[in-house]
Amino acid sequence: MASVLRSLSGPTDLRRLGDAELTELATEIRQLLLESVAANGGHLGPNLGVVELTIALHRVFESPRDRIVWDTGHQSYVHKMLTGRADGFATLRQEGGLSGYPSRSESDHDWVENSHASTSLSYADGLARAYQLQGRDDHVVAVIGDGALTGGMAWEAINNIAADPHRRVVIVVNDNGRSYTPTVGGLANKLTEIRTNPRYEPTLTAIRERLTSGHRIGEVAYEALHAVKKGVKDALAPQGMFEDLGIKYIGPVDGHDRTAMEQALLAAKRFGGPVLVHAITTKGQGYDIAVANENDQMHQSHPFDLATGEATTVAPAGWTSVFRDEIVRIADERPDVVGITAAMLYPVGLDAFADKFPDRVFDVGIAEQHAVTSAAGLAMGGLHPVVAVYATFLNRAFDQVLLDVALHRCGVTFVLDRAGVTGDDGASHNGMWDLSLLQLVPGLHLAAPRDGGQLRELLREAVAIDDAPSVVRFAKGAVGPDIEAVDRVGTIDVLRRDAAADVLFVGVGPLAQVALDAADHLAVDGVASTVVDPRWVKPLDPAITDLARRHRIVVTVEDNGRQGGVGATVAQTLHDAGVSVPVRIHGITQEFLDHAKRGVILERLGLTPDAVASDTRSALSGLDTGNTQQG
Ligand SMILES: Cc1ncc(C[n+]2csc(CCOP(=O)(O)OP(=O)(O)O)c2C)c(N)n1
Ligand SMILES: CC(=O)[C@@H](O)[C@H](O)COP(=O)(O)O
Ligand SMILES: [Mg+2]
């Protein structure tokens, strides 16, 4: 690793560096970002875009006494390098290595680990209120992207922060005009105007020259200029909106001009009340291949070749690509079907639909709550919306699913990508909640396809439901070969049927293959099994009770938290039907999982054929000795 970065033991060392060293530091940081993300994958574009901004932040503010909160946290690599963790970047996002997001166990400089967007300003408001009550004069800084600023929570926080002229919160808007794709919405349009309006700077220069060239140089002229400048700026950008709310606006500032950033941040630090610094940056700055990448400016990269920017590991056709193709076929047949994305058009696979039917796919920004309730509105208006989000991000819209969609029996289909263990992005990204949360929603239909063929079939069954919410959830990454059923009982697929079977395996989604392989392991010991895939895990087909009655034990396997998941639902269903067959529930332990590869985590959780077979063997022998332990 290079010299200036190596010489830093923490952010205070930044203040002894001169301009030349600081410029060299920025170069070295970019080189380390490129090397470590090319090797490990990660968020290249966002971090290349905040190099100067982060250096300026840590020179002006005194972390950790001053709290710096990163919204979403995917752009905190530079912050990590400047707070003593540059050496760790060889292990970025690896098991036991550096997390790709802030991590309290890594550093006292890190505060928020949740990578769900739009939360930073609420943390900042809370921290600042605490400081006010304790009479502390420390500073709170929240760095929020233009994308995250489209999230509803951000505006709830702004409403509160602006309420008190003494609330010492510095909001740094990192405005690069992009989430993955260009950020959308009225606010984004105004921010875009200020970034790209050629009139803005020459107009101000011309006014300043005219006013200062006349005889009225001095306060009056300055005030006139200031009033006109503000007038011009108001015409171009929403900072008047912020100031009208009670938040001082500073900017727009070139976020790659470290000196300008430091001046703006110093002014904000001295302001002593709610203040917003509007930084204009470029995602991918310093790596032209990223800047030129139309899809997402290398927002989230797999390991790649530095020379070409091309991924070095070609990801096999995944679940998302199956959905991407099938939703276009459905859209061809069903003019009432429309798509909704929360700023993730490509990652959720709605891009092909949007290309073919641009008027029928809506990007609402990072606004999942709005997405869900506006979908209810679309359904009430006679359309059939398909809301495509990552499973974990639906959590924040649970109330909207429950009471805006289900209560009104709206025909809305939710497609949950990245359901189950995702791994690399840490605890807040695993889609381990939906099979539990959605079990609570009256009337909702919930499907977990085991392969691509079932995804296509279940998606069609879902969009055919027009009087209730329907959900289809699938995992991150590669999709296995289709698993043929030997029979179908009600909505349940029978995948294996041994004669006089002792064990009934209930394999959910892609873990149906784990159940099949575990049955193979047991067959070697002479243990016979039936393996079923419920397909619709809600409502669970009542045939499950008759199937269970004919076995000595039921073993469920799912890629969701154990608490309240499919296994728990099966156990409750059997209990309610008076079927006393013991149930072994295999799922994700109900805890926050540290980052690691999906396969490593599944192994650690015992969601493998060996582990499931071994547990089943001991459960069966327990039955033989009279120990009928549920679990
Ligand atoms: C609630 C939620 N929805 C979606 C995402 C996925 N996501 C991660 S970063 C990102 C874009 C963020 O854009 P912005 O805030 O402008 O930050 P930038 O990457 O441009 O620095 C999105 C949509 C998320 N993290 N949280
Ligand atoms: C930060 C964020 O929420 C996403 O960018 C996340 O990294 C998703 O990654 P995948 O799309 O690779 O699952
Ligand atoms: Mg952005």
TrEMBL record:
CDD domains: TPP_DXS, TPP_PYR_DXS_TK_like. Binds 1 thiamine pyrophosphate per subunit. Binds 1 Mg(2+) ion per subunit. Its EC number is 2.2.1.7. It catalyses: D-glyceraldehyde 3-phosphate + pyruvate + H(+) = 1-deoxy-D-xylulose 5-phosphate + CO2. PROSITE patterns: TRANSKETOLASE_1 (PS00801), TRANSKETOLASE_2 (PS00802). Residues 317-481 form the Transketolase-like pyrimidine-binding domain. Gene3D superfamilies: 3.40.50.920, 3.40.50.970. Keywords: Isoprene biosynthesis, Magnesium, Metal-binding, Thiamine biosynthesis, Thiamine pyrophosphate, Transferase. The keyword Glycosyltransferase does not apply. InterPro entries: Dxylulose-5-P_synthase, THDP-binding, Transketo_C/PFOR_II, Transketolase-like_Pyr-bd, Transketolase_BS, Transketolase_C, Transketolase_CS. Mg(2+) binds at residues 146, 176. SUPFAM superfamilies: Thiamin diphosphate-binding fold (THDP-binding) (SSF52518), TK C-terminal domain-like (SSF52922). Its cofactor is thiamine diphosphate; Mg(2+). Thiamine diphosphate binds at residues 74, 115-117, 147-148, 176, 287, 368. SMART domains: Transket_pyr (SM00861). Catalyzes the acyloin condensation reaction between C atoms 2 and 3 of pyruvate and glyceraldehyde 3-phosphate to yield 1-deoxy-D-xylulose-5-phosphate (DXP). Homodimer. Belongs to the transketolase family. DXPS subfamily. This is 1-deoxy-D-xylulose-5-phosphate synthase. The gene is dxs.
